[in-house]
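Data availability excerpt. The first of two example chains:
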Amino acid sequence: MSPFKSRKQNSQKQEDGSSSFSNKPNLWQPKTELGKKVASGQITSMDQIYLGGMKVLEPEIIDTLLPDLKEEVLEVTSTQRMTAYGRKQQMRAVVVMGSERGYISVGVGKAAESRDAISKAIENAKKKIVKVSLGCSSWECGCGTNHSVIRTTMGKSSSTQIEIKPAPRGVGIVANETAKKVLQLAGIKDVWTLSKGRTRNVLNMVLATVNALSKLNQLKLGIDYDKSEKTSSSKAAPNAS
């Protein structure tokens, strides 16, 4: 067979879409134990992952359990570092992702081009999803809906600090532009905030806000509560005699 005929056959295969280089959808093949449980249907919600204390290492898990996540690019800047061969410049992207129903995350990615940096930031954000405890705890409001946070919380990142307080319905989100975008993607509608430090730094402001929202899940129980639990359990237990 002449080489001209083989080239014609390869070109016909490429036109027909039967070549080996055709774009086929990549099926997810989970590698971790958590990913296998999600793919098999044993885990169907993020609450099961949080209660089990499992760590998300595959972004496809979030694509399966939270398909309605929204993303927003907050900043794309250039960074430089000195190497033995001179200065190396990269692009850094800061992306915030949220479901507007109590889930929020922030991701940072670096690459030579802006597009690759944004894709890396999205992949990084999917591995750090945080659940936000929503509620109505303002003394001026007693509607009982999930429009604000359950209590006052504070977050910090470097020199940037933010304090988030519950607010009644109709107040809206009283915050700067960066923190407001994060709170909106988290599903918060009414809240008061107080920020200190270098709030112009977008990355530190986003990290401080997400840190404050993650602390809503950390509620310490008092010593009296622990003692009452022990006494009640000892009374409920049957006597050995």
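And the second chain:
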Amino acid sequence: MTFKPVKSVAKAIQILELLIKHSSENKVLTLSDVHASTGILPATAHNLLKTLEHCGYAQRRAHGQYSEGERCYTLLRTGGIIRKLKETSTPIIEQTVNDLNESLLLVSIVNGKRVELIRKLATDDTTKAPNWKADEHIYQMRTTRVILAWFSLEQLHFFIERAGLPSTKDWPECENSLKGLTRELELIRHKGGCNDNNTHPSSFVAIAVPILSSTNEIIGSLGCYAPRSRTDMARATGIFQLMQDCANRIQTQLFS
């Protein structure tokens, strides 16, 4: 007997794959996107997305706009580009931690959420990173700032919709405005990352660099909080350069 796939299930899987792709790029999925990519009629796509929403795999953002739901988010964290990024980066980051004798972390943003993928501590690291919670003060994290600096306008607006604009406490230079945020992100991109060596009164020097795809799209950020007591401007610059080399090696391995 010839097997005939269930058409509605096949269509739902097509939409789920699109949803994951758009969410990994920090973009919403619209009914028009579904129709353009799959040929599925908007009315059918609407019904299937409502079903996915009911099951926890989709979340309606606005009329006709969807992002991944919590169950879909869990799957995405353990699969696809996120898993590949983590697997590829781990040995390279371990080697860089040994070279620097500083702790490093790897971060990505998926569906507007900051996701810490790797935190590798140096063997003699007895310090602790700044004690704020990343979810509560996401704009203070230099890894977040670097990722946002390489976001497209669409991705940035999607992130702001979820997180709001940075407060004057979390990022005073932005002046709690989109114009100020855009200006600061352009500066970070121009510098190739964050290297806050002597510009902020803190016990840590915050350094972060981007990890880019083969098409120059941001997929993650590598961060370091080096104790200021042993990190002058020259050492901070050296750490920044070694972290850029580490990010380039990750990119080469990831897309070779």
